[in-house]
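Researcher: Quick sanity check before group meeting.
Model: Go ahead. Protein one:
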Amino acid sequence: MQNPIYFLSWVAGVCSIWLLWSLAIKRLFLDAFRERLFELRFELFRLGMSEELPFESDTYRVFETLICGMLRFGHRITFLTYVFCRIEQERARRDKNFVDLSRQIALKISRLNPETQAKLLRILKDLTMATMVYMAFTSLFFMSIIAGYEIAKFLKLWTPDSATKEIGFVIEREAYRAETMRPLRTVAA
């Protein structure tokens, strides 16, 4: 007779932990992620203010659109959406109209002077790292993958450069695509 009561209390405990995770802890990680994105966008703005990278340049617009897309759709970034976006990306590569956003960004960066290139590459690297950290801390499955990744990197069993770029590319492409599809609105003063 006490078994249903223990079972119900166990279910209530699991539900309350899930509720605490999804409504409190996960939102704190999202706020920290967005705060980091705002910092990176401000660094990009500083490059524009110092005229190292003019506001009118195509490269500035691409980076701004990318970061704004990540800010706007940051709540949708999960390990599961990463997997689905990766599958969609592999299907899209077969299409003749496929546009490789990562190569376009790399080409635009390569046309700048070396100092500005280094600053933009650092912003892009920080953006990718912030996204990976956010995904790691909001997904238990991905958190265990990141732990294995760090152990393999520490033991020199795996070189992380290509994997980091590949993970970041999928997420950046989806955020950029979603942000460019947004209609522009003008405000009358």
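Researcher: Fine. The other one?
Model: Protein two, sequence then structure:
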Amino acid sequence: METVKLKARIGPNAKLEWLEPLPSLPQGEVEVILIYERRKKPEGRQLSPSEWPLLNGGEYLGGTLRREEIYDDEV
């Protein structure tokens, strides 16, 4: 196997656009690996409650929730 590193841009509808001319390549099947930087979400944007992570805490069985009871130790 041989490796060729080429630069490209992802355009509308996820279309790959080469930024430089392609070298002479043999016909056949190839593997393509895309390496890109994930864009951060703009700062200041508030998440709506529907976007908050969900926790499944099980069922509360009553009683107190003192630290000693939760962790079974004495402080």
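Researcher: One line on it for the slide.
Model: The CA atoms of residues 1 and 64 lie 65 Å apart.
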